Task: structure prediction
Amino acid sequence: MIRKPISKAVTSIKSRLGHYLLEDWMWVRPATAVFCITAGYVVWLSAFHRPAPKSADILSLTALSFGVFGFLQGVLRWLAVPDPEIWIPTESTVRIADNFAVVKIAVANWDVTPFLRPLVLRTAPEGCSLRVSYADPDTGEIKFRALGRWDDNPEPINYQTGAPDLVTMLANRRLAKLFPADRDRSEDIHTVPLAIKQDRSAVCHHFNDESYSPSHQPGWRNPAWLLPDKRYNVEIELRGYGMIHPARFRCTLVNEDGTGGGFRLTPGP
Result:
């Protein structure tokens, strides 16, 4: 009767310990190094017929090893913290639906350099959301703030009926995970459309999943997100679970077809 609860307790302890070591694998290598340094010190003294090491020597060396282990673990954890980058891609203006153009930004959670990858991998923040604000460059007044749309998420449309899918629209507010990206792999880069404009139109509109609502059709035009013909200071803020601080990026939306400035994004302000 007593053996069964004891057996369950031992199994639970093994499971929890194994889960901890597997999940927090960075703890394993430094701890192993601590053991090897201490054991190697004792073997080295014995091999050269030196006096047996005093317990104080072993304790001091063990304390030093754990200090080094703590420092290395802190460095590895610091390197693993996600630090996404936002920038304007080379082809930031993209044509869609024959007579519309969209300006986009790019986002990536760059992984650590290749020689550090055997030791640590960049973690992936979860539930990433983008908030975009548009401001008048002359007065600094913010016209409006709105969420951004991840191109990785599906369009919030029921393709059988053509009606907007409200469930998908709500789910698309966040990107599930921003996985570490390799600088040599373009498919690891995420794109986010900011504004959409129809040909021969003087105005553009901010674009996200809510733009698919029936009241904003045709042309994905939300009256609250109207941007007349001029330049705007744009600020993008990226937040996600696992990030220490939000990533921010500032650029200028040029909407000056009437004066030859075109429809594009430029660095700044």
Q: What stands out?
A: Helices lie at 3-23, 28-47, 55-80, 166-171.
